[in-house]
Write a structure and sequence with these properties.
By secondary structure, the protein is an alpha/beta fold. Helix content is about 30%, strand content about 25%.
Length: about 350
C-alpha cells in the first residue's frame, strides 16, 4: 500500500482532557483527488466550539473550528471549482444530496452530513478540504471582507430557522432572545430578508442592547421586559415568531409567553443535557402555537447567504469584536465566556 507524501506540517489548537486545549503540530498530506489545501486566514469561535469544550464532548486531539476563510494553496487531481490563490469559504458539513432524507428536505440530518470534511480543523494554520466540501466551496468576491465571509456557515443555520418560522408575508413582529453573536446575527438576517419586519431583542447587557438598536431592532430590552415589549410592538397580540438563541427551558417559556396564538418558537441553541421543555401542553395545544428546531444549515441556505453577502444585503462584520492570533485561543474562549466579546476571529500568526 502506498501513502501520499507529507508536504508540510501545520500548527493547530487541539482539545485536551478536562475541557482544555493544547498546541500541536500535525502532518498534512498533499491534496488527493478532489481535495484542496488551504492556508487559513481566519476562523470564528462559535457557540458549538464553546459547548464542546465546556462539556469535553470532542475526543482528545480534535481540532475544532469551522467558520473559516482561507486561500487555496494547492489542489488535487480533478478539482475545477477552485484554484491556487483563490480566497474561499468552505463548510465542514455537506449532505450527499441523494438519500431519502435529502430528497425530503432534511439534508442536515443526512448521515453523510455528519462527517467533518476539514482536516484537522479551522483552528490551524493550514488544512485539507475533502472533496464534497471542495465541490461546495465559495470564491469570495473582493468586495466581501474576511470578517463578513466567515459568517457564511452560521448565517445559513440562521436562515434555515427564519424559513421555518413561517413569518407572515407582510409586516409582522419577531422576537430574538439573546443579544450575543448569534442573536444579533438573527437580527441582521431578519433585516436582510424581511426589512418590513419589526424585530425586538431581549438581552441583559446594556451595551449589547445598544448595539441591537444600532443594527435595526425596534426595541432592545432586558429579559424581564420581554413580554411587555412583545405586546407593545404587536398591537397586544404577541409576536409572530420568537427565536431562542440562549437555550434551555427558561428562554423557551419566555418565548411562548411572548408569542401570539398561532405563532412559532424557533429553538436555535443547545440546552443542558436532560433539561426538560418545561411548559404546559394544553395551553400550547389550544393556542395552535408551533415549536420547531434548527440545528444547522444546508446547501440551499448557504447559496442564498452567498448572494446576500455578495450583494451587501447582509453584513455581519460589525459583530466581530476581537481578532486574536491563534496562540491566544484560550484568551478568546475566556473573553466570550465572560461576555466581553461577541464574535472572535482567530488568525494564524505569520
Amino acid at each position: 500500500m502506498t501513502t501520499r507524501p507529507v508536504v508540510l506540517t501545520t500548527r493547530a489548537v487541539a482539545c485536551a482532557t478536562g475541557g482544555g486545549t493544547r498546541n500541536v503540530e500535525l502532518a498534512l498530506d498533499a491534496p488527493g483527488p478532489g481535495e484542496a489545501l488551504l492556508r487559513v486566514i481566519c476562523c470564528g469561535l462559535c457557540g458549538t466550539d464553546l459547548f464542546k469544550l465546556a462539556h469535553s464532548s470532542a475526543p482528545e486531539g480534535t481540532v475544532l473550528g469551522h467558520e473559516l476563510v482561507g486561500v487555496v494553496e494547492a489542489i488535487g487531481k480533478g478539482v475545477v471549482e477552485v484554484g491556487p490563490g483563490d480566497r474561499v469559504v468552505v463548510t465542514h458539513h455537506a449532505a450527499c444530496g441523494e438519500c431519502t432524507l435529502c430528497r425530503r428536505g432534511a439534508d442536515t440530518q443526512c448521515a453523510a452530513f455528519k462527517e467533518n470534511l476539514l482536516w484537522p480543523g479551522g483552528f490551524s494554520e493550514r488544512l485539507l478540504v475533502r472533496p464534497r466540501a471542495v465541490a461546495h466551496a465559495w470564491r469570495v468576491p473582493d468586495s466581501v471582507p474576511d470578517a463578513a465571509a466567515a459568517f457564511l456557515e452560521p448565517a445559513a443555520c440562521v436562515l434555515r430557522g427564519v424559513d421555518k418560522a413561517a413569518l407572515p408575508p407582510r409586516e409582522g413582529v419577531a422576537l430574538v432572545i439573546g443579544g450575543g453573536a448569534m442573536g444579533l446575527l438573527h437580527l441582521l438576517m431578519l433585516r436582510a430578508v424581511r426589512p418590513d419586519l419589526k424585530v425586538v431583542v431581549s438581552e441583559p447587557e446594556p451595551e449589547r442592547r445598544r448595539l441591537a438598536r444600532e443594527l435595526g431592532a425596534v426595541l432592545a430590552v432586558a429579559p424581564g421586559q420581554l413580554v411587555e415589549a412583545a405586546q407593545e410592538t404587536s398591537d397586544g397580540i404577541g409576536v409572530d415568531a420568537a427565536f431562542d438563541t440562549v437555550g434551555g427551558s427558561g428562554p423557551l417559556v419566555d418565548a411562548l409567553a411572548a408569542m401570539r396564538p398561532g405563532g412559532t418558537a424557533v429553538l436555535f441553541a443547545h440546552a443542558d443535557e436532560g433539561d426538560p421543555a418545561g411548559f404546559q401542553l394544553n395551553p400550547f395545544f389550544k393556542s395552535e402555537r408551533r415549536l420547531v428546531a434548527t440545528y444547522s444549515g444546508g446547501r440551499g441556505e448557504q447559496l442564498r447567504v452567498v448572494r446576500l453577502l455578495a450583494q451587501g444585503s447582509l453584513d455581519p462584520s460589525p459583530l466581530v469584536t476581537h481578532r486574536l492570533p491563534l496562540g491566544r485561543f484560550d484568551d478568546a474562549v475566556a473573553l466570550v465566556r465572560a461576555r466581553h466579546a461577541l464574535k472572535v476571529l482567530l488568525e494564524p500568526e505569520p
